[in-house]
Amino acid sequence: MDSPKILVVEDEKVLAVDIRNRLQNLGYTVPDITDSGEEAIKKVAETHPHLVLIDICLSGKINGVQVADIIQNNFDVPVLYLTKYSPEPILHKQQLTEPFSYILKPIAERDLHVAVEMALYKHEIEKKLEEKHQQLTAIINSMGCAVVVTDTNGCVQIMNPVAEKLTGFKQNEAIGKDLTEVFNLIDKEMNEPIENLAKLAIKADAVLSLPENCTLIAKDGRQIAIGDSVAPIRDDDGKITGAVLVCQDISKRKHKEAQLLRNAFYDGLTALPNRILFIDRLRQAIERSKRRNDYDFAVLFLDLDGFKAINDRFGHQMGDNSLVAIARRLAECLRSGDTVARFGGDEFAIILEEIKDVSGAINIAKRIHESLALPLNLNGHDIICTASIGIALSGSKHNEPESLLRDADIAMYRAKHQGKARYSIFDEAMTR
Question: Which part of the chain is the GGDEF domain (predicted)?
Fold first, then answer.
């Protein structure tokens, strides 16, 4: 695909221009921006964009959700909603339940890139799957996918070579066996067996899609993600005579989706959670503290002391290796329920769950200092990199993650001004 065309529909002019500029910086084409639903529909008809970014709270006669429905149903163009943070029930009410169906304001360029790529990718996959369903009869005749035909009892009658290769069973082995013996399927997420799909389709008298996390356990023990459908077979009189299962290996697609999700929520260098995932976990901690009087937590903000000198002296590769080693040490200082994230550069943040008082956070800070005081042996060099740590405790004034992070950041700068390898606890006097 050439540079994808994206239409931006946003009634905040400054934000719309900013989004357009960000998209263009990322290599996309933005033929136009508009602030009304009616104009958006007209622009889609004229420019045929590959994707529409639309404000869910668009003002005018029709709102963003209504405009999106028209665009998706009449022009087959995917839509990515722009919305400010809302609690989960509100997002559900607005039909934003699918992963990557929306992006939260304010928008970071990297988040925008991931969301757009995922939306385009998902739409492309959905189009291909739709085409496959439309060509189901041709696929069965040409044996392009794994095809298994069963009788009304769900026992195998026919298998094509693709199905033989996928399952590891030869047709003469499989004939007469219950479908679940040949197509041993489990729900990968729940780790539970899936019932005989042929029987389910016959009972429902309908075409059924394979479950989302459907995994085939092949004869040799291989686990293969599969997808497609199972349907009842009818004779000329409309009587059901059996079922046909058509499926294919979707492992590559699943892997790509998983990789996109990982790239969205984890730091590529250290494999720690990134800022996006950290903010989400911090928001969950805040919500727990509102529901439970006995739940307290702390946020630690870390900035490595003099890290630039490591890069200057040993090079950026050594600097990256140091960050990976430091990330490992930070994780080792925490309990299993705590979170450490890399915010980029030489900044890290930590959520300490279920602490009784400030002493719990202080003990962790001291443990981190003790760990970092031990030299890192990298490529024959002993490197010591200390950290300045700011500590902020949860409290009633903290309703948003950003306020806690701000307090921890202020405390960190106070620690840094006091010298290397120090920690400081936030108090209101620091803001005066």
Answer: 295-428
